[in-house]
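Backbone-to-sequence.
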């Protein structure tokens, strides 16, 4: 299957063709951080994955990864392409589901959506276990982003998903897996660095960096700031907050993310400071469309995911 990338998505290029198989290889490499790990997950050779990505780079006219002895790292262009690739593959999955519905077939494989934040919170090892469980249940899995993931569960493209919350309980059947505060990610020169915690009111008049509007953190942050009587000064948005904050020229800027991700890692010259608030936090949830009947196999997968990903709150 071929996808046409429209002109304007990447600079100084006309429309280009990208094979959806190559997008799958690219996204798996993004998730794994190396060609060899991606190849192992996809039961292909590392050379085959590398060649497909190289062809994709040549077609798009830009490097997608920086190759290092320890693996690969997305370039600025690669970050952009990943965002579009996730949307494209979600659309492809939806198209296939619609084709199956129109043709009257009921043999569509079930699909489990897994968002970027979920992967980081749960960890590579447990995510790999969940992907194996999904495969054993005859289900595929798709990397996604928070709000798109909710849409795909509602329209039936995904049967269930591990995503960021809170979500609307009127629309979704929800199982809470983990819960924690948002946090400020600050340089050691910032006054917040020595604090045990801060409140949302402390963010007034601060220049903020956070995830873009496709992610739950962005909306929790903006709603919380408005509740406390001010508009957040968002200087930049990103999908890789740690890297953006550490390379951002203004050391007074405050990164906003979830403490479940940033709080468990030590960084040179940076620290995650929790934002203490009883209402505006971040959740990891397992969701399905409310009222939708899942098969016994899918219900069993739900139980196994809960056993694998749940942590006592």
């Amino acid at each position: 299957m071929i996808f046409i990338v429209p002109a304007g998505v990447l600079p100084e290029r006309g429309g280009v063709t990208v094979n959806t198989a190559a997008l799958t290889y690219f996204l798996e490499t993004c998730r794994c951080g190396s060609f060899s790990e991606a190849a192992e997950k996809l039961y292909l050779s590392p050379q085959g994955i590398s060649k497909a990505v190289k062809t994709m780079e040549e077609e798009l006219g830009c490097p997608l990864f920086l190759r290092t002895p320890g693996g690969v790292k997305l370039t600025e262009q690669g970050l952009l392409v990943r965002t579009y690739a996730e949307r494209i593959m979600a659309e492809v999955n939806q198209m296939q589901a619609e084709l199956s519905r129109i043709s009257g077939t009921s043999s569509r494989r079930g699909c489990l959506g897994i968002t970027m934040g979920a992967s980081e919170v749960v960890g590579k090892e447990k995510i790999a276990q969940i992907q194996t469980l999904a495969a054993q249940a005859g289900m595929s899995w798709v990397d996604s982003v928070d709000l798109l993931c909710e849409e795909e569960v509602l329209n039936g493209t995904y049967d269930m998903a591990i995503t960021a919350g809170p979500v609307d309980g009127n629309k979704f059947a929800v199982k809470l897996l983990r819960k924690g505060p948002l946090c400020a990610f600050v340089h050691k020169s910032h006054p917040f660095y020595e604090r045990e915690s801060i409140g949302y009111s402390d963010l007034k008049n601060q220049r903020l960096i956070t995830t873009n509007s496709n992610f739950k953190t962005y909306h929790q942050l903006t709603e919380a700031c408005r509740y406390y009587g001010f508009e957040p000064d968002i200087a930049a948005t990103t999908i890789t907050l740690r890297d953006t904050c550490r390379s951002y020229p203004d050391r007074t800027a405050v990164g906003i993310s979830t403490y479940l991700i940033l709080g468990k890692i030590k960084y040179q010259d940076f620290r995650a400071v929790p934002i203490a608030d009883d209402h505006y936090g971040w959740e990891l949830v397992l969701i399905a469309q409310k009222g939708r009947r899942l098969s016994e196999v899918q219900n069993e997968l739900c139980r196994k995911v809960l056993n694998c990903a749940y942590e006592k709150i």
